[in-house]
Design brief:
Layout lengths: L6 E10 L9 E6 L4 E7 L6 H13 L7 H26 L7 E9 L2 E7 L3 E6 L2 E4 L6 H7 L5 H4 L21 E6 L5 E5 L1 H4 L4 H8 L4 H14 L6 E10 L10
Antiparallel strand pairs: 1-10, 2-3, 3-4, 4-5, 5-8, 6-7, 6-9, 9-10
Helix pairs in contact: 1-2
């Protein structure tokens, strides 16, 4: 019998509260059996950020194994919409000024293809040979200033408003999700992470650590490096590697 996919996937994840925060408002999903990974970062300074991020991960983790790329994509979108509605209702019960929200970044794989759906500044990267690419694009006030030419990329990380996001699940009545899709290649390595990592560890250092063969060691080293560099936030890293499978059937893309 032919395999439904040309790839198998191995993954590893670490989520660390860090040295400053008392509560871990990050949450992650590591489900190669579903072809689905996610990182959610509850918005600091708002009510119940840990509840928001955990709700996202729990609802996504309750999915069944998909039969097609389209089914996987539709179900992830539907569950994030449901999370948004639940968070808006819960915030409304607490009063008009209450916000319960979380960023989210997801990696979906099916057949020869992958897709990324996200809202906020939690990121997806891809390491393909020597090329290290940020797949997602931050929904943040600082990124908007970079796009307008007001800030340089090098200035963005140290800007005092670097943690202000412009989209998140639960922030508005309707969540606006961006999507990017592309082909997979054997030996691609993906990294989903929260800004507790990217805020203090530059991309070049992340790429160097991610290039090692042992994914468990890589994600732990990423977190340890962020802590050593003085990260004051929760830190979450999920790494996924594509490995070639034997015999497969072509599939319809996302």
């Amino acid at each position: 019998m032919m395999s439904p996919t040309p790839f198998t996937f191995v993954s590893a994840s670490v989520s660390e509260v860090g040295f400053v925060r008392k509560l871990n408002e990050d949450a992650c999903l590591d489900r190669p059996d579903l072809g689905l990974w996610a990182v959610a970062d509850g918005m600091g300074g708002h009510d119940s950020g840990d509840y928001a991020s955990r709700l996202i991960v729990d609802l996504l983790g309750e999915m069944h194994v998909p039969h097609s790329a389209g089914e996987l994509l539709s179900e992830v979108r539907a569950r994030l919409d449901r999370c948004n509605a639940i968070l808006r209702d819960k915030a409304a019960e607490r009063g008009e000024d209450s916000i319960i929200a979380s960023t989210v970044v997801t990696l979906l794989v099916f057949g020869e293809h992958f897709a990324c759906i996200w809202a906020g500044d939690s990121r997806l990267y891809r390491l393909r040979g020597p090329e290290f690419l940020q797949v997602s694009r931050d929904h943040s006030h600082v990124q908007e200033m970079v796009d307008m030419g007001v800030l340089s990329e090098s200035e963005a990380g140290s800007h005092p408003q670097s943690n202000v996001v412009t989209r998140a699940v639960g922030a508005d009545d309707e969540v606006v999700l961006d999507k990017m899709r592309d082909w997979l290649q054997a030996n691609d390595v993906f990294l989903l992470c929260s800004d507790g990592l990217t805020g203090v560890v530059p991309d070049a250092a992340i790429a160097e650590i991610l290039a090692q063969d042992d994914l468990d060691a890589a994600v732990q080293q990423l977190v340890d490096t962020a802590l050593a560099r003085g990260s004051r936030d929760n830190i979450t890293a999920v790494a996924v590697r594509c490995l070639p499978a034997t015999g497969w059937e072509k599939t319809v893309p996302f």
